[in-house]
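@channel sequence for tomorrow's demo:
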Amino acid sequence: MKRIAVLTSGGDAPGMNAAIRAVVRTAIAHQVEIYGIERGYQGLIDGAIIPMDARSVSGIIHHGGTILRTARCDAFREESGREQATRMLATHGIEGLVVIGGDGSYRGAHDLWKHSGIPCVGIPGTIDNDIGGTQYTIGFDTALNVAMEAIDRLRDTAAAHDRTFFVEVMGRHNGYIGMCSGLAGGAEEVLVPEKAFDAHALVETLRTGAARGKTSMIIVVAEGGDGGSAYDVAAKVAELSEFKDSRVAVIGHLQRGGTPTAFDRILASRMGVVAVKSLLDGASGVMIASENNVMVQRPFEETWTSRNLFDPDMLQVIHTLGV
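structure tokens (generated this afternoon):
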């Protein structure tokens, strides 16, 4: 294999640039030409393919986002789109592809591999940490720390005004960020998609805290739960109880940007190196996964047939420490 390419797809995640850097420099170290594909699969269809060298990834390891940019691409779901992508890869003589993204990105890589026969290897990049087969995804640790810092700051103002705050964090349909940021931030309760929402139980938690002398409380709401948004939860609590003077804070896309943590930079760098080596060793249709701090290969199919879940015992830890 003499020429490979790398692209980022789906939502951006802190650490993607570190992964791009690792892919580019590992390819160069093995005397392999490396190209970058801008704006994901859409850029592949459009032919936005550029040569890269060691200097093109200089000084990016600490930057959030992705220098290759990313985009959604409905056209790639169609056979005609994948056929056009195959032609573009052939035109540039590209023999292997590294895809940095989430499970949707891997579905696309899997379909491209099956359609064209071009080997594809994935690197998990998403703040949600929801991809099956890997313990950690690039970007999760950074997003978690952003959420935790926000909770810390909100607790200060909640205490100053004797208020309850409902803090909404990202995660799509996975409560990993909510659970971990709530535990690290000392939240009184965490609402996650993995557990059914019980408004009456939440009201009792708040009343119990107030009876023990608490004058301010933090409730973390992970997006995607059946209780709705943090605004919906706050409204339901106000309807059922005396806790009507609450505030809602939605952290939102702040969790997706910014400087990646050391953990995410290291994880991305290790995965980038292993991804290129796996391609050169003949691997395809696999994602590079972190398992007990070891980089391993997992079939693409595992990334969408299973989901990475937090330990449910963490919920009990929240309740035990929230007295």
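heads up for whoever presents: The two ends are 59 Å apart (CA to CA).
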